[in-house]
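Cross-check.
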Amino acid sequence: MVELGISFGTIKSLLIFFAPIIVPRIINFYRSTRVALASRPASRALPPNASRALNVLFFATLFFFLLSLPVNPHAPSPNIFVLTRSRLNTPTDIVFNRLARHRLENALTDTDTLLRSKFTSLGARKVYLRFGPETLTGCQFCSLENINTYLLYYLPFHTLLPHLFHMVIVGLVTSAPFAGREAASWRNKFTMAGLALASLDTYIVSTYDPVQSASAAVRAGVSPPPSLYHQITLLRPLAFAIFDGICAFLIYVTATNRFFFTPPSQAEQVDQLVGSSLSALSGATAKLHAVNVARNAVVRDKVLKDRDDAYWRTVVADSAKVDGGDLSANVWEEEEVVRAMSQAMAGQGGVDLAKLGISAAEYVNGVTAGLDNDAELRES
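Predicted model, tokenized:
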């Protein structure tokens, strides 16, 4: 472990300095949390868009967790110092003789032989512990006189590329077209957290020293030195898995209105109002079209046109007689209408009343859909 060397007095001084800044923020956060919990709406089912984001995060979390296991096929090779129980200053021949006992037929592999040829100095061993065997043996332009050349070789593919892949996943699950408004509200925060994680990883790799950062036992040559490469290669995907798990939890509680509820913005409210208005306008247009179809059917048929004209003449005449108190007979009481209705009800004329009634009911229901609800709203 790294010895920080911070005294209790220093910690006390820092607390006295930062407490007036931190404590009010904690209190405000607590109060805002209580208000948010009290004013949150009723929970709802998970929206389909948020469900897609959670599915992606589930598979990403599972993938990164499997990569963090030492038994996975892509796990880094074991630290040969720990495997052979060797110290940092143990002679190279002794280290690899011990390593041969862990190989098949007690023989070193070609990779072991190449690594042995590079294990010529303490600087090479530091590079091995910091960047791994592949960087030590595979870099063609690197020099032990300038350790930063190994850092330039190691960072792009071993550190930056995994974080770039992880940020692509974060960007996908916080995209509004793919994951919905609730997940998109976390986009900036998740992005900043992902960049902070990448910066921390880069900082550790860039500043770690296998000797100065090691424990006193390692520096004294008593214990085997730990390998940063081996540890961070397994801890990095584990950090991604934990990060994605937290993201999935926050998206879930936000999308279901259980926590972190944010009311729709003014622009979103306008979009919802315009959408509902367009839907109502489309329904009204369909009903007007149906009425126009019925009117054209009446006008184009001579018999129906004559009856329609006669009906409206009767209505006008009845309206004129209402003031005098003499209500004329309804059009349904006319002899021709009564006779036609009697024949239809008796099944004469080849009319299937059952089928005709079903078709007429479906048509009328489609034309008059929503009229009852509109009337109730006007009455209330």
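Confidence is low (pLDDT under 50) at residues 1-5. Residues 7-39 form one domain. Passed to J.P. for a second look.
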